[in-house]
Structure formats: C-alpha cells, structure tokens
Amino acid sequence: MPQTALHDGEEIDSTDCNDGIWGAIHRHKPPVKVQCRGCGGQMWAKESMLENRFFSHVSKPSNCPSQGETAEHRELKSLLARAIRDLGWEARLEATPEDGDQGGWRADVLAVDPVSRRRLAFEVQLAGMTVTTGRERMDKYARDGIDTYWVTAKNAWWLWRIPGFLLQDSDGEPQVARGAAHFGPRHSAPQALALGESMYWQPPEDSTLTKLLADIFDGFVAIHEIEAHGTFGLEGCHSARKHETNITALVNSESVLREASYLQMLAAKDAEQTQLELERKRQLANDKRRDRDRKAWEAAVAKNHHDDNSVSYFEEFCQSQARVIEQVVPILQSMCGEDDAVLIGVVPRELSAPSQSAGVVRDDGKDWCYVNGDHTTADGALLWLKKGQAFGKRVAIVCPNPRFLRPKVDELWRQWGVTLYVETTEQAEELAPLIGYDLGNITVVGSDS
Ligand SMILES: [Zn+2]
What we know:
The chain is an alpha/beta fold. About 35% of the residues lie in helices and about 25% in strands. Zinc ion binds near residues 39 and 41.
C-alpha cells in the first residue's frame, strides 16, 4: 500500500504533509479519489488504527509496484523517512528517477542531501530475495550514482551479503541489530586497545538507526568486506554465512583504517618471527659446520698419530704453537695496564665479548699444549687483548695451520687487524703465499728470527 499519491497532478506524501492537505483528501465530503503513482489506478486516503496515513487502491490493481507492501513494510518506510528528515536530509517515498537518470528503479525511500543533492536509496525488503536479485537492483541505482542500503526487520538470508541492516525496536528507539560492524578491542575490555592486541570485528557499541544514518550521511560509513577469520564475536554472522569467506558489512571508516594498521602490525610480527627463525637456522648451520671442522681436525690428528710413531706433523705444530704463545703473551702483557688481560683461545662467535673461560692454554702435563682454534683462525690460537671493562679486541693469531686455510680467511684477518705469529721463517714462507701476505707481514718469534 503506497504512502504517496497524485492529487490534481500534485504529489502528496502521506508521511510528510500538513493536516490541511490531508484533510482535503481524507474523509472529505464529497469523497475525493487520488491517483496511484505506480499504476495510475484510483486510491483512497486512509489512516491505520495507529493513525498512520497511507493510500489504498479502490480496486485491487493487476499490476502495481506497490503490491505486496504490507503494513510492516509501510511502517519501516515511515520510520526511515522520519529518521532521515530528523537529520536534515530530504526523504522521498516511492521515489522515481529524475530527468537524466537511466532509471529502472523505484526507491522505497530516497534520501537526498539538501546541499550536495547526493542521493541514497533505502530499500525495505521483508519478503524473501536472492542476493543476485539484490545486486541487480543495486546495479540499476549505481548507474544513476545512487548507493543502496537494504533494510529489513527479519533475519534475512541476504544480510551480511549485500549492504544492509536489520532494524529492531528497543524501547521505541530503532536499533541496528545486524549488518553493521566495528573493529576494535572488545567492548568489555577496552584496555586491550592500549596493549595493541586482541582486536575484533563486533557489533558497534552505539547501534541506533540515527547514529548509523548520521554516519552514512557524513561519509563515515564504508561498505567493507570482512574476512571470515576476523568475524569472531560478530553477532549473528556465523550461523548466517557458514560457507562464505567474507561478509559484507557497514562499518565505520575509522574501523577500516584500524584494521589495516592492525593487520600490518600482525604481518610485521610474522616477518620478525620469520627473521628470527632464519637467524636461528643460520646459527645452527654454523654450529654444525664448526663441529664438522673440529671432527675433521681431530680425525686428522688421530690418523697422524696412528700413521706415524714419530712426533706427527700436528703434534709438532701444536708444540710450535705453544712455544710461540709463550713468547707472544708477554709481549701483549707489556701493553696491559692493571685491569687489562690477555685472553687465549677462540671465543665462540655468539658471545659478544671474550670471557676468561673462553679459552686457556691447556697444561696437560706434556711439553706441548693444545689451544682451540677454529675455521676462522685456520686452527691458529686467537689472542685477545681486554682493556679494563671494555670488550676484548682480537690482536693476534698464533700459528695458523696452512693445511686448514679456508678460502678468503685472510680477508677476515685483515678486517680484524690481527698480527700473525709463527715460530720459523720456514713456516712463514709456507703460509705467506697461501694467504697473499708479504713475508714481512708475518711475525717470526722463534729462535731463528
Ligand atoms: Zn497502484
């Protein structure tokens, strides 16, 4: 049943006309018939028991767009029109296209901004409707630059699928029960915002129709696709849309920005986690490689002991290293103050500074000792100078083993700025060409120096 009609060629809106105009057509003597804007048929002006005004066809029309509009439909249209007008916008009921429009639509309520003339269509839909039909009708509005909002009083199938909302009466104040969402910490736990965690899509805290319309008119409402994983806590959308990925909701634009920065934060956290994981793996690989080197070295030492009953090459090498250390340490100690120390050994790379336990000359009662080196020193003993409380600095490598040189290890030594010490000129002559050093850059401290 329509709420608008034509009388003497003038449009009458029963929800927005004064008593004088209404009195000229309602219960007038003699009776006055008005014309339907939809089918052109004749109608009477009527009032419901609650004194809501509307029009009723004199005889049941065979083809009228207002057919099937129930009293509930009419009530919702009136309610929307009232709320729209309260906010200062025009509300046109059963609105038809204007000059210049492509048309194909008849809006239940067309809201018009009195200044910019921006138009928004509110379609009351109480009967069943497929999402496809809804989209087709929205497309027609879109061609004429009109956004569409679907309004229902039932838990309709299309809710959360096309832009719209479910209206419920709460103590006389119409509330948006579904269709709108807000992104933020749980209303019950606003302190979560400060912690920057646990953000959810949920029903807005202020969900009155007036608030939603005001936000729509002010351009603060975005039609937003919410990913299903983020819909936890959003009332009524799980049961309605179990099998879909996203839901379509009317949300505050601020919520969209907040979600974007929240997702960015989560992504950054993920990336950081990935980076840590990568570093951990790299460290593990390093440790493994060092283990392998150590085992190879020990195997080589064992093999030499086994192969040769005389003092092996490696034993000689170690003895030589021990003798050079004995000579070099006093030289370094002479550079030390009271709080300074010379540390001997290879300090694990994961330590930021050498510690006293990192490596010491091991006195095992024999006349040679064994100092841990690694692939970064070609098994030479690394000497550190620790000045006071400051971190130690690598100052020397004693007897790097020519058989354990890795490619480009000399680059590392140059970078460290360490002095290379060997016992004999023969050793220096063997080492120098292998690492591209001048002979003069290797210090010989043995008896033949
Ligand atoms: Zn009609």
